[in-house]
Amino acid sequence: MTSSPDASPRETLLLRGAPAAGAVPYQRAASAPVWGRRSDRSPADDVVTPMPVAAPPPPAPAPRSAAGTPAPHLPPAAAAAAGTVLDTGSSRAEAAAGRAGLRLGDVYAEQLGRLREEARREGWAAGHAEGLVAAERVVAAAEQAAEERLATVQARWERRLASATAAMGAAVERLDATAAPVVDEMRDSILDSLLVLVGDLLGRELAMAASPGLDALQRALTLCPGDVPVVVRLHPDDLAEVPAEALAQLPASVTVVGDDAVERAGALAEAGNQRVDAQLGAALERVRAVLRS
């Protein structure tokens, strides 16, 4: 860009996009109005005085490409215009790239947030499922351990109960084996004592009786049937003590005879095929046999 030495600062401005040799002050251009004041002159009254043009600077050495071939040389004005176009295009490209980058960043951020949320939900679901499975395993293991402990305790108590039952059974058997002879002996002693006492009482009663033979005869006839002939046997001493009146009052079917085999105060009666033992000693033996059975 060149200017005249005597021109004002505003007149040194050049129109861009034109060669520097043809540049004129904007106030002297035929089509450029003067801003801020009204012009009364016509374009014909303006005289265009050509300004001295300085020699253009020597061109810079042409850059070489990567292959070593010199790049094509452009005039300064064309280079400036090309630089302006390139600057403008690069600025627009950068702005567009920035807007695209902002839009892509928003899209990426939204996509990233959605992916994070999905990953969080999937992770929570997977962790929840794994937790349930682990809890079920823990519960199953605890139940199995409890069942095993219960079975062990139950088996131990069953063994203890069986052992205690066996010990009690053995003790009872030993007690029975030890006490049975003693009990039998005690029972026999008691029975013997009782029978001796009864015999003594009966002997005293018979000793006080007026006619023991008559009492024995009456006991024997009480147990015999009355429609058959009866033979009563008494001890000869007892038969001698029976009054004759008592013998005369007996039925004709009853016969009384003496027998030394019969004990004193006893009688034996035979009525057909029936035999009645009215002896006190035999009666006591029968009582003893019944009590011991």
UniProtKB/TrEMBL annotation:
Region (Disordered) location: 1-76
Classification via InterPro entries: Flagellar_FliH/T3SS_HrpE, T3SS_Stator/FliH
Top-level taxon in the UniProt lineage: Bacteria
Alphabetically ordered keywords of this record: Bacterial flagellum biogenesis, Bacterial flagellum protein export, Cell projection, Cilium, Flagellum, Protein transport, Transport
Biased composition (Pro residues): 53-62
Feature: compositional bias, Low complexity: 63-76
Cellular component terms per the entry's GO annotation: cytosol
Domain Flagellar assembly protein FliH/Type III secretion system HrpE: 165-285
Single GO BP term: bacterial-type flagellum organization
UniProt family annotation: Belongs to the FliH family.
Function according to Swiss-Prot or TrEMBL: Needed for flagellar regrowth and assembly.
Protein name (record): Flagellar assembly protein FliH
Species whose genome carries this gene: Modestobacter versicolor
